[in-house]
Automatic annotation (TrEMBL):
PANTHER family: BLL2464 PROTEIN. It comes from the Bacteria. This is Uncharacterized protein (DUF58 family). Residues 42-269 form the DUF58 domain. InterPro entries: DUF58 (IPR002881), vWFA_dom_sf (IPR036465). Pfam families: DUF58. SUPFAM superfamilies: vWA-like.
Length: 311
């Protein structure tokens, strides 16, 4: 039984996102995703004119007669939300945290999928799998997903993107549209400094890219990067203490120093460039969202772009 105060908050999110869902469904959700996959139906004897690429060689070898595979277009999608709940997601300075943005985004996507008669599931992760809910249909199911995104209390204290991918590939066998929602700060990658940590960082990034390639071969992956303005630039407010949300390390920073602010921005930009370069090598098209921003217009533009590119 869901407590009444929890149910009220879930309902508020449901109401707040309902108009967004209608806007998305009248836009490009259907044309950007619907019917893009095919699934095997049966085999039949080869006929003159059939595409030789559809020959089922296993059946042909057993029967000594050529058979071809028949496929049918999938009439519904399996939509999966792969959501990062690591400690850095709790950060936010623009009237909401990244986790609040993630929850509203996830709720909007889940409700859009259900209203389009698609199944939707959820995997929440940190440096471990916090919750996995297989895809289903129905409004009650969506309410459960919203509740988990709102109130799941993560056990993990770091981020492990590779472990999240490995678990996802083991549990999701049907080709799916995967909305991978994270700040992609690569918190599990060692910080720069010593030659050893640089080697560790390079190896970790290579391992992550290999796992991402496997995920991309199996699924239609949409990385959604959630961020906050203060992750890219510091305000000029004097001495402040900055705490790393995953390591707990605290550092005193003089934001009154122009050199310090420029160095902070340079490091942030370098990290962002490395992430975007990895996505480019994978031919992934990320969507960037910031705390405090409205999410509907960026989603619509993204879906229109996918539609034009024939994804």
């Amino acid at each position: 039984m869901i407590p009444s105060e929890v149910l009220k908050k879930i309902k508020r999110i449901q109401l707040r996102t309902s108009h967004r869902v209608d806007e998305l469904l009248t836009g490009s959700w259907h044309s950007a995703f619907k019917g893009r996959g095919i699934e095997f139906e049966e085999v039949r004897p080869y006929q003159v004119g059939d595409d030789v690429r559809t020959i089922d060689w296993n059946v042909t070898a057993r029967s000594d007669t050529p058979f071809v595979k028949l496929f049918r277009e999938e009439r519904e999608l399996a939509v999966m939300l792969l959501v990062d709940l690591s400690p850095s997601i709790g950060f936010g300075t623009q009237h909401q945290t990244k986790r609040e943005l993630v929850t509203e985004l996830g709720a909007t996507l889940a409700m859009s999928a259900i209203k389009n008669n698609d199944k939707v599931g959820l995997t929440l992760f940190t440096d471990q799998i916090e919750k996995h809910i297989p895809p289903r249909k129905g409004s009650r199911h969506v309410l459960r997903l919203i509740r988990e995104m709102l109130y799941c209390d993560p056990v993990g204290t770091r981020t492990d993107l590779v472990a999240a991918i490995d678990h996802f590939n083991r549990t999701t066998h049907r080709r799916s549209v995967v909305f991978w929602i994270s700040d992609f700060l690569l918190g599990s990658v060692p910080q720069s400094g010593s030659p050893q940590s640089e080697t560790q960082r390079a190896n970790a990034e290579k391992s992550l890219e290999r796992s991402m390639r496997v995920l991309s071969r199996r699924h239609d992956v949409i990385p959604i990067i959630v961020g906050d303005e203060r992750e890219m630039r510091l305000p000029r407010v004097g001495l402040i203490r900055l705490r790393d949300s995953e390591t707990g390390r605290v550092q005193l920073v003089d934001t009154g120093s122009r050199r310090v602010r420029q160095q902070y921005e340079a490091i942030s930009q370098q990290r962002m460039n490395a992430r975007d370069a990895m996505f480019a090598r994978l031919k992934w098209m990320p969507l960037h969202l910031q705390t405090g921003d409205d999410i509907v217009e960026p989603l619509q533009r993204y879906f229109h772009r996918r539609e034009r590119q024939g994804k």
